[in-house]
Give the backbone structure.
Amino acid sequence: TVAASFRQTIRTKNTVEAQAGRYRTVRIALDRIAREIGQSYLSQHEDTTQPERRTQFSAKKRADIDEVKFSFFGHQRLYQDANEADTSMVAYFGGRDPYDSRKTNLLRREGRRLQPVKLEDQNNEVAIVCDDVVRFKLDYYDSREKIWREEWNTTAADRQPDLLPSKIRITLTVRDERGEEVPFQTQVRVAMQEPLF
């Protein structure tokens, strides 16, 4: 009886520790996404003859994992004298886990500097931000219309070409150690809504 009770205690302890580790991973991912989106910006110094804008905020609603791509001020250079800048483009999107096709991961891609080239065509790496994601939903507050939007696109003339959302609601739903869906949510304010001149 004592041995069985001890084994149950160990199992409970392992489950609680695994759950705490999983929640910590999600909170770190949410914190990073919120921090980077809060540093997004637009510039009016664009070469209109180029096929791709160097600064933009492009967000698309998807069935499970929303996609967002934006220019921001938070790029960190890892090597001294690297041909990089403090500004770059970053994107968040979903992708199948390479080892388990039943799982979807939240992925992140970042350029080394702003370029008039599509981010996916640049020489950059893709990293997993959070594994086994059920849903990644983003909502954008339009301060002009006083409504929440599910998409935002500063590259289309009929959308929001000269304005960023004033705040963004981020919802990340993951599976815990027991396989149950657990949503986490936060909001972030965008520091600069108007484009730089």
About this structure: The beta strands are 57-60, 67-72, 88-96, 104-110, 126-130, 133-142, 147-149, 152-153, 167-175, 181-189.
